[in-house]
User: Which sequence fits this backbone?
Protein backbone atom coordinates (compact mmCIF):
# COMPACT_ATOMS: atom_id res chain seq x y z
CA UNK A 1 0.00 0.00 0.00
CA UNK A 2 1.25 3.48 -0.79
CA UNK A 3 0.86 6.60 1.30
CA UNK A 4 -0.54 9.85 -0.05
CA UNK A 5 3.01 11.22 -0.08
CA UNK A 6 3.99 8.85 -2.87
CA UNK A 7 4.44 10.54 -6.22
CA UNK A 8 1.17 10.41 -8.06
CA UNK A 9 0.19 11.79 -11.42
CA UNK A 10 -3.21 12.14 -12.92
CA UNK A 11 -4.85 11.06 -16.11
CA UNK A 12 -8.51 11.38 -16.74
CA UNK A 13 -10.98 8.98 -18.29
CA UNK A 14 -14.33 10.63 -18.78
CA UNK A 15 -17.75 10.00 -20.19
CA UNK A 16 -20.47 12.58 -20.66
CA UNK A 17 -23.95 11.16 -21.10
CA UNK A 18 -26.99 13.39 -21.51
CA UNK A 19 -29.96 12.14 -19.51
CA UNK A 20 -33.39 13.68 -19.04
CA UNK A 21 -34.09 15.50 -15.80
CA UNK A 22 -37.22 17.13 -14.45
CA UNK A 23 -36.02 20.71 -14.79
CA UNK A 24 -32.90 22.72 -15.42
CA UNK A 25 -29.47 21.57 -16.49
CA UNK A 26 -26.38 20.60 -14.63
CA UNK A 27 -23.59 18.11 -14.16
CA UNK A 28 -23.25 15.10 -11.92
CA UNK A 29 -19.57 14.37 -11.42
CA UNK A 30 -17.83 11.31 -10.03
CA UNK A 31 -14.19 11.16 -8.94
CA UNK A 32 -12.46 7.76 -8.86
CA UNK A 33 -8.94 6.53 -8.25
CA UNK A 34 -7.50 3.79 -10.43
CA UNK A 35 -4.52 2.28 -8.69
CA UNK A 36 -3.32 1.02 -5.36
CA UNK A 37 -5.44 2.67 -2.69
CA UNK A 38 -3.49 5.29 -0.71
CA UNK A 39 -3.22 4.54 2.99
CA UNK A 40 -4.38 7.06 5.56
CA UNK A 41 -2.18 7.57 8.59
CA UNK A 42 -3.29 8.12 12.18
CA UNK A 43 -2.53 11.68 13.23
CA UNK A 44 -0.42 12.18 16.35
CA UNK A 45 -1.86 15.04 18.37
CA UNK A 46 -0.10 14.49 21.69
CA UNK A 47 1.94 17.69 21.32
CA UNK A 48 -1.15 19.42 22.74
CA UNK A 49 -2.81 17.61 25.63
CA UNK A 50 -6.19 19.07 24.76
CA UNK A 51 -5.94 17.81 21.18
CA UNK A 52 -4.78 14.39 22.33
CA UNK A 53 -8.10 13.84 24.10
CA UNK A 54 -10.43 16.05 22.06
CA UNK A 55 -11.78 13.36 19.74
CA UNK A 56 -13.93 10.69 21.37
CA UNK A 57 -16.30 7.94 20.33
CA UNK A 58 -19.93 7.91 21.45
CA UNK A 59 -18.96 5.84 24.51
CA UNK A 60 -16.33 8.40 25.53
CA UNK A 61 -13.31 6.32 24.54
CA UNK A 62 -10.50 7.93 22.49
CA UNK A 63 -11.12 8.16 18.76
CA UNK A 64 -8.30 7.88 16.26
CA UNK A 65 -8.24 10.60 13.60
CA UNK A 66 -6.90 9.83 10.14
CA UNK A 67 -5.05 12.07 7.70
CA UNK A 68 -7.24 13.76 5.10
CA UNK A 69 -4.84 14.39 2.22
CA UNK A 70 -6.09 11.37 0.26
CA UNK A 71 -9.39 9.81 1.30
CA UNK A 72 -10.24 7.00 -1.10
CA UNK A 73 -12.94 4.42 -0.40
CA UNK A 74 -12.48 0.71 -0.88
CA UNK A 75 -14.34 1.03 -4.15
CA UNK A 76 -11.98 3.78 -5.30
CA UNK A 77 -14.22 6.82 -4.79
CA UNK A 78 -12.35 10.01 -3.88
CA UNK A 79 -13.59 12.49 -1.28
CA UNK A 80 -12.70 16.21 -1.29
CA UNK A 81 -12.29 16.74 -5.03
CA UNK A 82 -13.34 20.24 -6.15
CA UNK A 83 -15.22 20.09 -9.46
CA UNK A 84 -15.82 23.44 -11.14
CA UNK A 85 -16.49 25.20 -14.42
CA UNK A 86 -13.13 26.41 -15.66
CA UNK A 87 -14.22 27.89 -18.99
CA UNK A 88 -17.42 28.52 -20.91
CA UNK A 89 -19.25 31.15 -18.88
CA UNK A 90 -17.90 34.04 -20.96
CA UNK A 91 -18.23 37.48 -19.39
CA UNK A 92 -21.21 36.55 -17.24
CA UNK A 93 -21.24 38.07 -13.77
CA UNK A 94 -22.89 36.47 -10.78
CA UNK A 95 -24.27 37.90 -7.58
CA UNK A 96 -22.18 37.20 -4.49
CA UNK A 97 -24.02 34.86 -2.09
CA UNK A 98 -25.08 36.38 1.20
CA UNK A 99 -25.05 32.95 2.83
CA UNK A 100 -21.99 32.63 5.04
CA UNK A 101 -19.67 29.69 4.66
CA UNK A 102 -17.93 28.30 7.74
CA UNK A 103 -14.47 27.04 8.64
CA UNK A 104 -14.56 25.48 12.08
CA UNK A 105 -11.68 24.30 14.24
CA UNK A 106 -13.03 21.36 16.18
CA UNK A 107 -11.18 18.40 17.63
CA UNK A 108 -8.00 20.13 16.47
CA UNK A 109 -9.01 19.62 12.85
CA UNK A 110 -10.47 21.97 10.25
CA UNK A 111 -14.07 21.34 9.26
CA UNK A 112 -14.62 21.09 6.36
CA UNK A 113 -11.22 20.02 5.10
CA UNK A 114 -12.10 21.18 1.58
CA UNK A 115 -14.81 23.62 0.55
CA UNK A 116 -15.68 25.87 -2.38
CA UNK A 117 -17.02 29.42 -2.16
CA UNK A 118 -17.57 32.40 -4.40
CA UNK A 119 -15.20 35.38 -4.40
CA UNK A 120 -16.20 37.91 -1.73
CA UNK A 121 -18.55 35.43 -0.07
CA UNK A 122 -18.27 35.77 3.72
CA UNK A 123 -16.65 32.91 5.63
CA UNK A 124 -16.99 32.60 9.40
CA UNK A 125 -13.83 31.19 10.96
CA UNK A 126 -14.57 29.84 14.42
CA UNK A 127 -12.75 28.04 17.20
CA UNK A 128 -14.82 25.32 18.85
CA UNK A 129 -11.82 24.04 20.84
CA UNK A 130 -10.66 25.05 24.30
CA UNK A 131 -7.13 25.60 23.05
CA UNK A 132 -5.22 28.14 20.96
CA UNK A 133 -5.41 27.96 17.19
CA UNK A 134 -4.15 30.31 14.53
CA UNK A 135 -5.47 30.58 11.00
CA UNK A 136 -2.82 31.16 8.37
CA UNK A 137 -3.88 31.42 4.72
CA UNK A 138 -1.33 30.90 1.96
CA UNK A 139 -3.03 33.00 -0.69
CA UNK A 140 -1.00 33.89 -3.77
CA UNK A 141 -3.37 36.16 -5.71
CA UNK A 142 -4.53 38.28 -2.78
CA UNK A 143 -3.45 39.35 0.65
CA UNK A 144 -2.95 36.43 3.00
CA UNK A 145 -4.11 36.51 6.60
CA UNK A 146 -2.72 35.05 9.81
CA UNK A 147 -4.56 35.56 13.08
CA UNK A 148 -4.99 33.78 16.38
CA UNK A 149 -8.14 32.51 18.04
CA UNK A 150 -7.06 31.74 21.59
CA UNK A 151 -10.47 31.12 23.18
CA UNK A 152 -13.25 28.65 22.59
CA UNK A 153 -16.07 30.44 20.81
CA UNK A 154 -13.86 32.97 19.02
CA UNK A 155 -15.21 33.92 15.59
CA UNK A 156 -14.01 36.12 12.75
CA UNK A 157 -15.42 36.86 9.32
CA UNK A 158 -13.06 36.69 6.34
CA UNK A 159 -13.41 36.55 2.56
CA UNK A 160 -11.29 36.14 -0.56
CA UNK A 161 -11.62 38.77 -3.28
CA UNK A 162 -10.16 36.83 -6.21
CA UNK A 163 -10.39 33.27 -7.50
CA UNK A 164 -7.75 30.76 -6.44
CA UNK A 165 -7.48 27.61 -4.35
CA UNK A 166 -6.11 28.69 -0.99
CA UNK A 167 -4.39 26.46 1.53
CA UNK A 168 -5.03 27.20 5.20
CA UNK A 169 -2.89 25.91 8.06
CA UNK A 170 -2.62 26.19 11.81
CA UNK A 171 0.95 27.09 12.80
CA UNK A 172 0.29 25.83 16.33
CA UNK A 173 -0.78 22.36 15.25
CA UNK A 174 1.10 21.35 12.08
CA UNK A 175 -1.23 18.47 11.19
CA UNK A 176 -4.13 20.90 10.69
CA UNK A 177 -4.74 22.00 7.11
CA UNK A 178 -7.67 22.88 4.86
CA UNK A 179 -8.34 24.18 1.36
CA UNK A 180 -10.79 26.81 0.19
CA UNK A 181 -11.55 26.90 -3.52
CA UNK A 182 -12.54 30.44 -4.50
CA UNK A 183 -14.37 31.06 -7.79
CA UNK A 184 -16.01 33.99 -9.57
CA UNK A 185 -19.19 31.98 -10.22
CA UNK A 186 -21.45 29.57 -8.34
CA UNK A 187 -20.80 26.47 -10.46
CA UNK A 188 -18.57 24.45 -8.17
CA UNK A 189 -18.95 21.56 -5.74
CA UNK A 190 -16.91 19.18 -3.58
CA UNK A 191 -17.21 15.41 -3.74
CA UNK A 192 -18.52 13.52 -0.73
CA UNK A 193 -17.19 10.18 0.51
CA UNK A 194 -19.06 8.42 -2.29
CA UNK A 195 -16.98 10.40 -4.79
CA UNK A 196 -19.90 12.35 -6.24
CA UNK A 197 -21.07 15.95 -6.41
CA UNK A 198 -23.44 18.00 -8.55
CA UNK A 199 -23.25 21.35 -10.31
CA UNK A 200 -26.80 22.69 -10.40
CA UNK A 201 -28.64 25.16 -12.63
CA UNK A 202 -25.89 25.34 -15.21
CA UNK A 203 -27.14 27.10 -18.37
CA UNK A 204 -27.09 25.16 -21.62
CA UNK A 205 -23.74 25.42 -23.36
CA UNK A 206 -20.29 23.95 -23.83
CA UNK A 207 -17.91 24.05 -20.89
CA UNK A 208 -14.50 22.98 -19.71
CA UNK A 209 -14.78 21.34 -16.31
CA UNK A 210 -11.85 20.82 -13.98
CA UNK A 211 -11.48 18.41 -11.09
CA UNK A 212 -8.87 19.40 -8.47
CA UNK A 213 -7.43 17.32 -5.65
CA UNK A 214 -4.72 18.39 -3.24
CA UNK A 215 -2.67 15.23 -3.78
CA UNK A 216 -3.69 13.90 -7.19
CA UNK A 217 -3.61 17.23 -9.06
CA UNK A 218 -6.06 18.68 -11.57
CA UNK A 219 -7.61 17.30 -14.74
CA UNK A 220 -9.96 18.86 -17.28
CA UNK A 221 -12.80 17.70 -19.48
CA UNK A 222 -15.07 19.36 -22.02
CA UNK A 223 -18.79 18.76 -21.61
CA UNK A 224 -21.99 19.91 -23.28
CA UNK A 225 -25.04 20.73 -21.17
CA UNK A 226 -28.35 20.79 -23.04
CA UNK A 227 -31.66 22.37 -22.04
CA UNK A 228 -33.60 20.01 -19.81
CA UNK A 229 -30.74 17.54 -19.55
CA UNK A 230 -27.97 16.66 -17.13
CA UNK A 231 -24.46 15.57 -18.07
CA UNK A 232 -22.72 12.82 -16.16
CA UNK A 233 -18.95 13.11 -16.02
CA UNK A 234 -16.55 10.61 -14.49
CA UNK A 235 -13.03 11.71 -13.60
CA UNK A 236 -10.60 8.86 -13.08
CA UNK A 237 -7.28 9.74 -11.47
CA UNK A 238 -4.51 7.24 -12.15
CA UNK A 239 -1.11 6.56 -10.73
CA UNK A 240 1.70 7.79 -12.94
Assistant:
Amino acid sequence: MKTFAAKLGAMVLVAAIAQPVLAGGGVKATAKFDGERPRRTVLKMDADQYCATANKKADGSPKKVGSEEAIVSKSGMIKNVIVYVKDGLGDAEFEVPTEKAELDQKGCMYHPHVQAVQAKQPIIVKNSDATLHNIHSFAQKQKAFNFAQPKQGDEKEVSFARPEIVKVKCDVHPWMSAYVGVFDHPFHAVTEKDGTCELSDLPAGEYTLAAWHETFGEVEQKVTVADGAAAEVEFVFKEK
Observations:
- The two ends are 15 Å apart (CA to CA).
